[in-house]
Design brief:
The chain is of the alpha+beta class. It has two helices and four strands. A four-stranded antiparallel beta sheet has the order 2-3-1-4, with helices on one face.
């Protein structure tokens, strides 16, 4: 199951180090700070690297089906 790593990190040196590690893991860049990884352990380790260097990271599992997510989630109507 693929995972998304979404992060915000301060400092050029920290960003360069993270970028090198993302390329070593063969992650796919979706947007500037959004990367897709297949290995959950690598994704978690990279998130910890971001958090330990003063940034914030979020790991989000992708859905396995092809149905798009609807935002905001539709609430069931109460009769």
């Amino acid at each position: 199951m693929p995972y998304l790593l979404v992060y915000d990190i301060c400092g050029t040196n920290n960003a360069l180090r993270l970028n090198r590690k993302l390329h070593q893991c063969r992650a796919e860049q979706i947007q500037q700070s959004v990367w897709k990884l297949e290995n959950p352990e690598q994704c978690r380790a990279l998130a910890e690297l971001v958090n330990s260097n003063g940034g914030r990271a979020l790991v989000v599992p992708l859905r396995s089906d092809d149905k798009p997510l609807s935002f905001p989630p539709k609430l069931r109507s109460q009769p």
